[in-house]
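Annotated sample (chain length 370).
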Amino acid sequence: MKITKISLLNFRNYDKTDIKFNENMNIFVGENAQGKTNILESIVILALTKSHRVGVNPNIIKFNKSRCSIKGTIKKNKLISKLEYRQKDDKKELFINNKKINRNSDYLSNLNVIVFIPDDLEIIKGSPVFRRNLLNIELCQIFNKYVNTYNEFNKILKTRNEYLKILFNNGLADKNYLDILTDKLIEKSILIYQLRNTFINEINEVINDNFKELGGIGNITIKYNPNISFESYEDEYLINNLRKNFDDNYYKELKYGMTLFGPHRDDFNIILDDIDLKYFGSQGQQKLAILAFKLSEISIFKKYTNYNPILLLDDILSEFDLKKRNKILKYINNLNIQSIITTTDLKNINKKYLDNSFVFEVNNGTVERK
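Output written by the structure step:
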């Protein structure tokens, strides 16, 4: 899978911009706040229908404009497709080959991306929300059935939480309805648990080798931590285990007015030599572990979608020392996938990587191929 061209109209600090990409490595160079990250963000939005940037102004439409659009040409072997994201005020529209798509689940997976950004340290240091978001974003791209199931799960979860509060305030309310909601929640939970467990198991098959190849020292593994102890991820076992937890904790959930068990409480830990990196790892180890995790996803995307994803790396070269920088570039160069990288300068980048890349200069919302 490659993105061959992207066209931006009134997006962030861009008026009208067309960019043609190399099928291998693309490097966008420029000072901070010139629009490099906006290029990556536009590709993420085109792929996921939403931005990956936390704590940044969510209004992506250029100041004093009423609408924006992102168009991309995607190549999958010999198949060419055109994706488009349009936004006016808070309303968005999605198109594939000029046909309007009404459901996100019918749009996602047409463009698969893996993103590494400096804020990814929160995946290790932050709350479980960051780690669940990572799992959800990747699994939604890989499995259409995950998108639909996860959306349905959240609707049922919201209804169940609201009804728990009604039961707490009104002892005459019908508990049978809660049992129906519980059974529906369990039904949707099973696939989420199973795909998350499979995903993490497959990450573990390759992450240690990737970590060491990037210059890491020690043995790294990912530990999946649902808030219920599971010995198996078979359907029947999960159903019985979940139902028992809900039965045993009915009054506790009633007291708190919320659903206390389920995939919405999942977490995972990144372990280096039996030590949780969240509490004991250096920042350098944490960054390298996250990068190894992201790069380990590539083979999983290829296995289940038949295509390599596109690798988006924001300001990655400033995140590591010179030795690791060139190890990372060598690794990416050998992957035979499309990558798009932003950096503030080209210093200390081996010339052989530049020779095989498209290099773009970004300056105040303009992009020029060097």
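Annotation: The CA atoms of residues 160 and 178 lie 7 Å apart.
Annotation: The chain has twelve helices and 15 strands.
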